[in-house]
From TrEMBL:
Molecular function in Gene Ontology: nucleotide binding
PANTHER family membership: BILIVERDIN REDUCTASE A
Lineage: superkingdom: Bacteria
Cross-referenced InterPro entries: Gfo/Idh/MocA-like_OxRdtase_N (IPR000683), Gfo/Idh/MocA_Oxidoreductases (IPR051450), GFO_IDH_MocA-like_dom (IPR055170), NAD(P)-bd_dom_sf (IPR036291)
Record domain GFO/IDH/MocA-like oxidoreductase: where: 156-216
Species the sequence originates in: Galbibacter orientalis DSM 19592
Positions of the Gfo/Idh/MocA-like oxidoreductase N-terminal domain: 3-118
Entry protein name: Putative dehydrogenase
Amino acid sequence: MLKAGVLGAGHLGKIHLRLINQSDKYELVGFYDPDEKNAKKIVKEFGYKYFASIDDLIDAVDVVDIVTPTLSHYECALKAIKKGRHVFLEKPITKTVKEAEELIDLAKQNNVKGQVGHVERFNPAFISVKEKVENPMFIETHRLAEFNPRGTDVPVVLDLMIHDIDIILSVVKSPVKKINASGVSVISKSPDIANARIEFENGCVANLTASRISLKNMRKSRFFQRDAYISVDFLEKQVEVVKMKDAPKKPDEYALVLQNAEGDKKQIYFENPKVTQNNAILDELESFADAINNNTETAVSLEHGTAALKVAMEIVALVEGE
């Protein structure tokens, strides 16, 4: 059982504390939070051990779970990795691509593993269809959220869109060729609505929209590929798979058949993959433990997190006109 400690006990940090505490793969040693008042409240309510400093916590564990504000990810991970500790970093991996690349090199030098908390990779809806997403040529994503003052200190691209950037990069096996983007600041000082178009070298195009001032929440992605359409609702955890195959000479009378201008006939089939409900955050944390124990690749590596950040930062620069 791996000894784990959590840095940061805010909204998400408390969720991580609870899940690590209930996991069979970890022993929760304790946590550190700079807000002593908040820390004492958590100790009183849940009984978790509170460490007086980051260094004390790092010295006592095998795995450091970093759930602090993004600005401090690099410094926290740096301390942990230098002491030979495995690190789980919430997304985005770091504030800058340079910081992320330094962590990759440092992790290799110290022979430790790192994973980034792109939790949508563990969404049961995506898991149920990800093997069916093969060479998509057009992708459309909408990630809309109702306004919440928490998180408006960062651009909507880093707050919301980065989830979809990571998912897209995980299914499109081709380098990024070109990015266009625009955005608008409505309430915050940084953009609240952003749209990006990512073109890949293999011809795939992804159109992403993110908003944090929507009247309703939405987290949908649609993947279009040869003879197939796949829709993933990350919020409702539902999927829709529509496939086309060459129509038989004598199709069933209720079959849905389409005919193009050349006279080719395709029959439409609907698939309903089983979506097995899970706790995505628990699954991502336990997958990290498995990677450490089995010495295998992490599900969302530091390299994956850096690739997503690199695209996100390019979009931010375009949106903010830098």
